[in-house]
Amino acid sequence: MLGGDANAFEALYDRRQGGIYRYALRMTGSESVAEDVTQEVFLSLMRDRSDYQASRGTVKSYLYGMARHRLLRLLDREKALVSFDGTDSAAPEAAHDYLHSPHDPFVDLARGEVIDLVRQAVLALPAHFREVIVLCHLQEMNYAEAAEVINCPIGTVRSRLARARTLLGGKLGMLKASAGAFTKINAGRAI
Question: What is the pLDDT of residue 47?
């Protein structure tokens, strides 16, 4: 690809585009931003391919690093793409119990609500905590790969991940509490 082979670029794009897109989507919650960032990363790679140095890391880390820099600049400019006030009371109290039957449309609705609430909670994390959750848990990178993308020591990834899990647990606990209150209020009503 560095030598100008279009087939090699196409193979690289096919292999890495989906991961870069999902990373950007999970960091911002916006499909259009994720599309733009992904396009910018690969256009920049085509334009500035001589900037990549194999001695500094893998192509995967280089691409994620490019996406990360674009996302952090965007997040700094926007400060908050998604607001989260913790008052959404639409979550079912015992969502886990509802998620086992794939044929019930109410189960599908509950599953979608839970997924949306978790997505909101992740998006509400500060960017440096959000990115370790996205990279390690959602993109399934190991600590070393995430550290290479973020350009920090592995210990920093571990400590950020531990703190991010704590913050995420707190946000999800608030959602569970608000869902419990919602359920108690509606307990006697017939549908």
Answer: 82
pLDDT digits (tens, 9 = 90+) for 78-94: 764 444 444 333 333 33
User: CATH number for the 6-78 domain, one of 3.20.20.70, 1.10.1740.10, 3.90.79.10, 3.10.180.10?
Assistant: 1.10.1740.10
- Residue 176 pLDDT greater than 50, yes or no: yes
Mean confidence (pLDDT) of the chain = 78
Tokens encoding 1: 């690809």
Q: What is the pLDDT of residue 92?
A: 36
Q: What is the pTM of this model?
A: 0.63
| Cα gap 147→20, rounded to integer Å | 16
Question: DSSP labels for 129-162?
Answer: HHHHHIIIIIS---HHHHHHHHTS-HHHHHHHHH
Q: Closest Cα partner for 113 from 79, 81, 86, 88?
A: 88
CATH 1.10.10.10 residue ranges for the chain:
95-185
Nearest to 182, CA basis, from 94, 117, 82, 116: 94
User: How confident is the model at residue 104, as a pLDDT?
Assistant: 63
- With H, G, I as helix, E, B as strand and everything else as coil, classify residue 75: helix
Question: What would you report as the CA-atom Rg of the chain, rounded to the nearest whole angstrom?
Answer: 20
Contact of 162 with 75, CB cutoff 8 Å:
no
